[in-house]
TrEMBL record:
Superkingdom of origin: Bacteria
Keywords associated with the record: Signal
Bias-annotated ranges (Polar residues): 298-309
Sequence ranges assigned to domain PEGA in this UniProt record: 238-301
Positions of region (Disordered): 298-317
A Pfam family recorded for this sequence: CarboxypepD_reg
Name by which UniProt lists this protein: PEGA domain-containing protein
Keyword Ribosomal protein listed: no
InterPro entries: Carb-bd-like_fold (IPR013784), CarboxyPept-like_regulatory (IPR008969), PEGA (IPR013229), SDr/BOS_complex (IPR051417)
Amino acid sequence: MWLPLTAMALILPRLPNPDQLTNSLDALQNAQLTNGSWDNDVYTTALALRAFQITHNPDLAQITGTIIDGQTGSPLSGVTIQLSGTDTQITNSLGEFNFLSLLAGNYTLQISTNLTSEIQLKPGQNINLGQIRLFTETTNIQGTITDTSTQTPLPGVAIQITGHNDTIHTDEQGAYIITQLTPGEVILQATLDGYLTASTTLTLTADTTHIVSLTLSPDQAILEGIISDGSQQNVVLAGAKIYIDSTQLAQTDTNGKYRIEGLASGTHNINIELHGYDSLTGTITTPSNTTITLTSQLHPTGTTPTTRQCQHHRQNH
């Protein structure tokens, strides 16, 4: 029964003469149970009473409308609609709202938090506001990513924003721009191979372009040290070759010193060779932004002891 009752409650305000549904109203009256209800159902009873109320008071008015997405045209459910002096409504799955049984007078209609309208209702008036478009407030972020040491722009940096699925990359000038972001607190993260990841937290406000420029530090370490003769005291070895991961990266000078800059952080194989001496092989771990000092001793061919002398210490940059 509730479907015809719903239709009756909606149709009655639109009729110039509600008496046109007299037969239906008589049938509705006859369907009332002895306990005063209809079908012993609260909702059905409420609809029936509304139908009778409209019939008895044709001066009642109503306001209806539909909320849709301003960009896609899709109906928006869950939108809060407030009408002064009445209850608050939430749009249904079709984006619809309807305020029924309203007295004549002035009302303020507020949709969500950003749209307000003043409405004057006349007795029995039915105002259909039609489709009301809501546009999402958005904001933008743009900036430039550069090298901390050289200040040169870095192309190809991956920029990610929390809550934003797409990854944006900087162009040849190290610049980027991200549009159509929702206002609120976000974390921006910049990532590039060979560099330490940088991130920042910021609060985005609507209708604003935020400038966020970051610098990236190379994900590198420095390896340095002195190579000496393990069979003699205070004798340094010049010309010793230092190999990292099978590639020669340095050679000791006349003071037995060497220095390797720009070494990628991580674990590496190291090999030190000099003609007439046993080679020294091992592994070394170089954390980011540190200087590793590796002091080693080589022994003449065939004389290397079981325990080699090799010392190293780390210094943070």
